[in-house]
Amino acid sequence: MSSASQLICAVVYTNKSTEAAQTDSSVISCVMQEVITEMKIKKVKDSLQKFPWFYRVDRSKAELILENYTSDGSFLVRECHHGGANVPFTLTIRFRGRLFHIQIRMRPDSRFALGTLKSNEMHFLSVAEMIDTYKKTPLQLHSNGKFFGETKLTHPPIVYSFSNKC
């Protein structure tokens, strides 16, 4: 049994009053939503393994991988370890000698979007659809809140010393 399932069971069996039961219902709903989100993200991660641009590495390893690629638009998608359940991935892009790390968010409707929530934002059914779109459509990059430039995603790195399957 997962820790989330254990938590749900603990909440159900420890509270007995009606008021507590209503609170339990809210807690259970919240925990169940987290469990469902985690399951969706695990399924997405597993499906991304087949793509050459997906790496199960942290930020510093992503930077090491891309440091030898000088072409604008060189990129990879990696797991995000600090963004919480709704930010499972980061798109790391090289542009004009710099690296940009852009969060990939999973919206409440299970679609994916880049960065922070924006009105009329582009959103996608999958991370793969997002990558395919930005291979054809320039992606605007910002630094310190200012427009820095735009680039298409050109090619993922080919690296033999880091495993995609870590």
TrEMBL record:
Gene Ontology biological process terms in this record: cell surface receptor protein tyrosine kinase signaling pathway; intracellular signal transduction
One Pfam family matching this protein: SH2
Domain SH2: 52-157
InterPro entries assigned: Immunoreceptor_sig_adapters (IPR051751), SH2 (IPR000980), SH2_dom_sf (IPR036860)
Segments forming a coiled coil: none
Protein transport as UniProt keyword: no
UniProt key word Signal: no
Signal peptide residues on this chain, from the entry's feature table: none
One GO cellular component, as annotated: cytoplasm
Keyword terms, alphabetized: SH2 domain
Name of the protein in its database record: B-cell linker protein
